Amino acid sequence: MSRQDINRSGEMEVFVRAVELGGFSAAATACKMTPSAVSKLITRLEARLGTRLVNRSTRKLQLTPEGSAFYQRSVSILADISEAERYASSGEQATGPIRINTSGSFGNHILAPLVPQFLAEHPGITLDITLTDKIVDLMEERADVAIRAGPLKSSSLIARKLGGARKLIVGAPSYLATHGVPKSIADLENHCRVGFSYSRAIQGWPLQDGAEAVNVPVTPGVQVSDGEAMRHLAVAGAGLARLADFTLREDIAAGRLAVVMEDFNPGDIEDFYAVYLGQGGPLPARVRALLDFLATHAKL
């Protein structure tokens, strides 16, 4: 039998139980084995080690000096294994670093305000947050969790839905005063429509004109790589923008942006997911703690 085929921790556990319980029969009951199986296991162990561990001349096991030393080391090793398993177990207290990758919009408007509460509830966790609208490879980026909008594209990923957001078309009062407030889909032809510079599932703006669904293309005048940049451009008066409502609430309430074209809003919802690697196995406690927290507190 090769060294790799030997369950050394299993042998140690049976040996320790036999010593602590005082015999093969008691150890067999505790380990759900037969007494003869326990006896053969310890005999094989002794043969492999090349030394006698117990004297069997009496009804109670007597450890040899070598057996006593092996027993003490086995107890220590098994304790270390148990500690390692508890640390890695999903039931262990949540500690350690979490690498999060998310969009600037979600990171600034949803995640950042929640960070103090999360860290207060989980003082053993540290966060490393990267903000980018670029879709990343979690393995390549060594990210524990990515928070993204839209459906999954990889079967190796698991997603937990955090909620959905309405999309609104907005413009700055200064822009609308200069260019007018669009009242129809045709009016949008006279407006700069800020777009994204990366590929999206729907490239234009989906609108609803009565019973007819219309996709309005985005003008190439201004394109940006992330939603926060688009919001800032809209506030600055560079043009109209279509964004998730949670990114716009403060600007709308403060009068920095005004909602337009609501009569043509199709009411589409952009779903947001916390995405992580795995195939349904146990999650590290630190990651599970974050997912549970976001599912409860992230209000889109």
Give an overview in words.
With 300 residues, the chain is α/β, with parallel strands linked by helices. The chain is 40% helix and 23% strand. The protein contains 10 helices and 13 strands. The strands form 4 sheets. Strands 3, 4, 5, 6, 11, 12 and 13 form a 7-stranded mixed sheet that branches. Helix 1 (8-21) crosses helix 4 (65-88) and helix 2 (24-31) crosses helix 3. The radius of gyration is 31 Å and the shape is rod-shaped. The two termini are 59 Å apart. The model has no long low-confidence stretch (mean pLDDT 87).
Write the layout of secondary structure elements.
Blueprint: H1 8-21, H2 24-31, H3 35-49, E1 54-55, E2 62-63, H4 65-88, E3 96-102, H5 104-121, E4 125-131, H6 138-141, E5 145-149, E6 157-171, H7 173-179, E7 195-196, E8 205-209, E9 212-216, E10 223-224, H8 227-236, E11 241-244, H9 249-254, E12 258-260, E13 269-277, H10 285-297
Parallel strand pairs: 3-4, 3-5, 7-10
Antiparallel strand pairs: 1-2, 5-13, 6-11, 6-12, 6-13, 8-9
Helix pairs in contact: 1-2, 1-3, 1-4, 2-3
CATH architecture group name of the largest domain: 3-Layer(aba) Sandwich
Which runs of at least 5 residues are low in confidence (pLDDT < 50)?
A: none
Q: Report how far apart the termini are.
A: 59 Å
The CATH superfamily name of the largest domain is Periplasmic binding protein-like II
Overall pLDDT score: 87
**What does the main sheet amount to?**
7 strands, mixed
CATH topology of the largest domain: D-Maltodextrin-Binding Protein, domain 2
Shape: rod-shaped
Strand content: 15-25%
Category by helix and strand content:
alpha/beta
- Rounded to the nearest angstrom, the radius of gyration is 31 Å
Provide the succession of SSEs.
HHHEEHEHEHEEHEEEEHEHEEH
The CATH class designation of the largest domain is Alpha Beta
What's the structural domain tally?
3
Q: Number of helical segments?
A: 10
